[in-house]
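This follows on from our talk about sequence and fold. Please put the record directly below this note.
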Amino acid sequence: MNNPILKVKCDLYLIKYLETLYGPQPIRFPNGNKFNTFIHFNLRMPNSYTQEPDYGEETLLLEIPDFKSYDVNKYCSFSERVQEIFREQIRAHFSLTFETEMTHILLMQVRRRRKHAIELWMIKYNIPEESWDMLQKKFQRFLPLGFKCKVNKESV
């Protein structure tokens, strides 16, 4: 029997990121994953008057794992607020991965070039081109202090 699908509104770049990590939609998180714990804790019964949500291309499809404690065919919905918190959890995971891997990419490069580092990361995680500006800003905010000092000295 197929597990029910949970529809969550999510930014396209986060959907692409999750698809790269966990495979195509509907995404099934591995056993013991923190996202599964979040899903288990926050599932609720949908209201009888609630329609099936459709967020267009911003729809993230999640396969609800089989939880032994309750019937996932009945408990198969998130409230709007829980969806917002879930998106924030995914963004935090995205940001942590971005910062960690940007540091590694920069350490591998003899000449630290922001453009190449961001481009390599976007290719690895299949991030759409529309996210370029957002990633540049994120890069600038979280650029390690040692790199900032060296860049400032070189520009003088």
Summary: The chain is about 55% helix and 5% strand. The mean pLDDT is 79. The chain has one domain: 5-155.
